[in-house]
Amino acid sequence: MSENQDISQQTLLAEEMEISKGHPPSRFRTIGAHFLRNKIDYILGFIWFSSICFTVIYVIPFLRSECEDMYYRTLIAHSATSLLRLYKKFHQSIQFNFEFMEQLLLDDSTHNLLYSLMFYCFPPFPWIWLPIFLFALLHVTNYGVQVVECFSPSAFGLLKKGFELMELQSINILKIIAITEVFILFIIPFSLLSFSFSGLALATVTVFVYEKFLILRYMSKQNPFTRIVFGEFIEQLEICTDQSSASACVRNFSYALIAHFRSRTDPSCRKEDLIYPEKPLLGKKRFVSGL
């Protein structure tokens, strides 16, 4: 039995004793017991909120020159949440076999960790912070919904309106994250490429590693939005290529690009695996909680 389960049983027994004596547990005791049962979730929520703060400070123009380290703090916070989520999911089922490694590699938290570590070694990239910021915003809202549902579903009227607005926009936010992650692949060469052998090698290696990251994202069983965006991108590229009056060289390059993307992605991961807008996205056992 784990430490968290021991604490949960002790707190539940204490509450039952209080109720049996005719004294319902105090509000403070209830909140404390809830925190102990879900302390990793609250730590994750705090780190996600820190990521939002770091990003906002970094993107403010007159603070950017003085607070450039906020960019790296954002990446560190994103790495910390990814490691904590991996620990929470897999610490009781660690196995040294192929099936476990495959399960670990297909988890979104592993992809997020790779994303953060990949860009930590480079100067600040444009738009790298946007997926982190939007993911953090979704997760902080998700934790807020859980707290309101747990303690006072009828209160916090204005806050609940904000959560409902975020939930309505969750599909669009997840699509923006996927589009940004795909777009970053095309700006890496322009950010790293220089007229030297080392610059060319660095850009090539980074594009190669980032492409692996996108393939892992595409094959994710938890988040279908990357393959949705990829499918729409390939469809639009095929339409533009077929209808354009460009030269044969440009058309051949476009067809080669389409064939490359199709060969690098897994056809078993279907674009039809959509998350429908009417399905709740926020809450303890809903879509965002699994990302």
Molecular structure report:
The chain is mainly α. It folds into 2 domains: 38-224 and 275-290, no CATH class; 225-274. 73% of the residues lie in helices and 0% in strands. It contains 13 helices and no strands. Helix 1 (3-20) runs antiparallel to helix 2 and helix 7 packs antiparallel against helix 11 (197-218). It is globular, with a radius of gyration of 23 Å.
Helix-strand sequence:
HHHHHHHHHHHHH
How does the major sheet shape up?
none
- The share of residues in extended strands comes to under 5%
Structural class: mainly alpha
Helix fraction, binned, reads over 70%
* Rg computed from alpha carbons, rounded to a whole number of angstroms: 23 Å
Quote the average pLDDT.
Answer: 75
Separation of the first and last Cα atoms:
26 Å
Keywords: Membrane, Transmembrane, Transmembrane helix
Family: Belongs to the PER33/POM33 family.
Protein name: EOG090X0CJA
GO cellular component, one term: membrane
